[in-house]
Amino acid sequence: MSTSLHASSVPAFIAMLNNIKSWLDLAAATGNEAALIEARLADDMFPLARQIQIAADAAKGAGARMTGTEAPVMADDETTFAELKTRCDKTIAYLESLDADAFDAGASREVVITFPNGAGVKFDGHIFLTGFALPNFYFHATTTYAILRAGGVAIGKQNFLGHLAPYMFAPPA
Hints:
Layout: H1 5-28, H2 33-38, H3 48-67, H4 81-97, H5 100-105, E1 110-114, E2 120-124, H6 125-150, H7 157-160
Antiparallel strand pairs: 1-2
Helix pairs in contact: 1-3, 1-4, 1-6, 3-4, 3-6
């Protein structure tokens, strides 16, 4: 049995976006929202808010490119945890609306991404999804986690893998 590209990616995008929302809930408890929103790991990296925006964009962009449709436009103007969680919710709703067969049909579709400097990349949908979209999404999700952790938010690996909670069991007695 093979697993479809949709089944291998869309649920993972949704799970991690939900994890990000839970991290923001934990971050809110620090009372340091304004500082965390602007926090970054290094001077030349984007701050927390932008990391979450890009993660959401990577997920919805993957959905749009794989289905040959347009992704919903989001303004990139979130300045609070609540607004960032709403962005995650909108992205999740979009991902849930995608037709799995249309998504999988995008495996052989040519995907061209042009960067602001005019350079770009071109590949088929399968390589785009597995070699670009998923790694890019997880880069920004992981950076979000790292910024929060470095900012004193009490999160750990169990929070990064929080979506696996339904599958966990206690050790034998």
